[in-house]
Design goal:
By secondary structure, the chain is mainly alpha-helical. Helix content is 39%, strand content 7%. Strands 5-7-6 form a three-stranded antiparallel β-sheet. Strands 1-3 form a two-stranded antiparallel ribbon. It has a two-stranded parallel sheet with strand order 2-4.
Length: 279
């Protein structure tokens, strides 16, 4: 599995697409929406075309509503070549820019690009002659001749999305690397950059959180947890039923207490790792 750092290095072979970190980017966006619900919303339900998988079709809610009005007024499909850019994507671009690779003449530092605020789109329309008027009518300002494809929504929204995106990555790193925690402060400093380089481009391993709910969770992942608890003498082999029941939850709580983990009876990454169960 390639890391982000390896993707940066491989640009020497012509791989200069930020689509290489798409799965990691989607995890970052999902984590942002955990930090602040609906801080970014998908606009792939609008009448739009996207030319590349590198494009994340997300905006702040107000910007999406304004874009919806633009498309309805025009009555045509709008092609988008760039919208929300995650900190992982910006890290690629900034790294290639610093190294003089991929023909990038200018790139903002991660967390500081205007494409990381969820209020920007790029439209590949020559001189923006076709869409510019409708976009400007709905508070989408044309950046100018130095970037004639770029529009920024000025109708209101949050101004801290870049920081939230960095925090989302920092939280994701900490969840997957409890033995190498970094400060969740929204600052893309050298420590965060180093962890980004070591992060899997295809995203961090994920596993279902197992907890006591009604109806109870069932499946092979529950069976693996129960077998691990049998191995440490907290369950009997006769308790293995692939159902996350109260006896299993209580055994998980005892195991967490024995290992000085947070006792919540939930099998997350840390508990799974202590039980010796792969993600």
């Amino acid at each position: 599995m390639s890391t982000v750092g390896e993707i940066i290095t491989s640009s020497a072979n012509g791989n200069c697409s930020t689509a290489s970190v798409r799965k990691l980017s989607l995890q970052i966006i999902a984590e942002m929406n955990i930090i602040i619900p609906n801080v970014l919303v998908s606009f792939d339900d609008l009448n739009i075309d996207s030319a590349t998988p590198a494009v994340n079709l997300y905006l702040q809610p107000g910007a999406k509503d304004a874009l919806r009005r633009v498309i309805r007024a025009k009555g045509e499909s709008l092609t988008i070549t760039s919208a929300y850019r995650t900190v992982a994507q910006q890290h690629l671009l900034f790294s290639w820019y610093k190294q003089g690779k991929c023909g990038i003449s200018l790139a903002a530092t991660p967390g500081k690009s205007n494409h990381e605020d969820g209020l920007a789109i790029d439209v590949p329309d020559p001189a923006n002659a076709t869409w510019r008027s409708e976009l400007e009518d709905e508070d989408w300002d044309h950046l100018g001749d130095n970037d004639r494809f770029h529009f920024t929504y000025r109708g209101g929204g949050r101004n801290d999305i870049g920081d939230i995106g960095v925090k989302a990555f920092q939280r994701l790193w900490n969840k997957s690397n409890p033995g190498d925690l970094i400060t969740v402060d929204g600052d893309f400093g050298s420590q965060t950059a180093a962890r980004m380089n070591r992060s899997p481009a295809a995203g961090f391993p994920t596993a279902r959180l197992l907890k006591l709910v009604n109806p109870p969770l069932q499946g092979d992942d529950v069976r693996k947890v129960q077998q691990a608890l049998v191995n440490v003498a907290l369950l009997q082999s006769t308790d293995i039923n692939s159902i996350y029941d109260s006896k299993t939850a209580d055994a998980v709580g005892k195991f967490q207490a024995n290992r000085n983990l947070s006792v919540d009876k939930v099998v997350g990454l840390a508990t799974r790792r202590e039980l010796g169960i792969p993600n």
